[in-house]
Amino acid sequence: MALALTATACEPGHGGAGGVSRPPGRTGDSLADRLSRLGIDVDHWRDGGWRDWDRWSGAAEDFVNPVIAGLWQPDRMRSADAAGKTVPARDALAHRQLSDPPPPLAEAVPERTPYREYAAPMGKLFFDSPGGSLVCSGTVVRDVYHPGKSNLVWTAGHCVHAGRSGGWYRNIAFVPAFNDLGRSEAGLADATEREVAPYGLWWADRAATSEQWIRNGSETGGAGAAYDYAVLRVRPESGGRSLEETVGTALPVDFSAPPVSEVGPVSVWGYPAAPPYDGLTMFRCVDRPRRLSLGPELPTMYRVGCPLTGGASGGGWFRRVGDRLELVSNTSIGPVDGAWLAGPRLGGDAKRVYDTMGARYGGR
């Protein structure tokens, strides 16, 4: 049976292979400096120059994402797609001796509304690719370098960068608690701006993903899935408070990479957009992870029987520690039939990506 690895949302690719994380740009660079080095005029960019994909670079210092006020209107958000990634067969990518059998299917449950009361740190990511506008999911995470004032969003690497086949995506923006009341498409036709984006629109002005992803990311995942994570630093399209202050909370990240035998049950959140879902409703499911190995030289991933589809990529996986939730993974890959999802274990490489954003850029 043919499968599609939903990187679970983006058109050009998701992968990586091993090594150190890669910082985005040079310390102290302004947006104007970065644009100038690329020979880009900011006014031309905002007037549509961003559509020139012939100038698509994978170099880490080439991430530029000027705010284009009014670009992400509700109609454009609703038209953004999720796209699949294909592999030959259901478990053809799994290393048999190191992987557990595929998990049984768990139940996907719509999150309670309003989302700002029950799942405020979770949200939807919008971005442009050469193939059109796409979507992923993301989570507001704590910034230990700037307590209480985090501007950091955790997502999947393939939601910000195409890997070896391309470069950074453009017009990346995050909407916490998107579609706060969980309205249908018809219901959103007359929804207020606050109902669509209760905390506003947040533009990424810095991005970091793994060196492994940038160097080896591919459309079918493969080795890259084990390093498929990213951190964005965002700023509001308007307003002055930090993302954490605006949303009211941010979730901690666990970089201990607990083995499957110790991680316990996890809750998986996201905005699935490929059928049978429409990308407008936040869903969650709970399952106990099993092992998925893509090769003996790669870190083992977590795999759960969660049926979320394209668009859920980058959504957080959380385990409960005492009275709080901790992010332990994010959605990376899964078959097109929604039989399971897999996410990377977050260890030293993931922490270096996080430290790049928090220590170097987080509070600016």
Automatic annotation (TrEMBL):
Organism listed in the record: Streptomyces ruber
Region (Disordered): 1-28
Xref: SUPFAM superfamilies: Trypsin-like serine proteases (SSF50494)
Protein name: Secreted protein
Entry annotated with the keyword Transmembrane helix: no
Entry keyword annotation includes Transmembrane: no
Pfam families: Trypsin_2
Keywords assigned by UniProt, alphabetized: Signal
Coiled-coil annotated spans: none
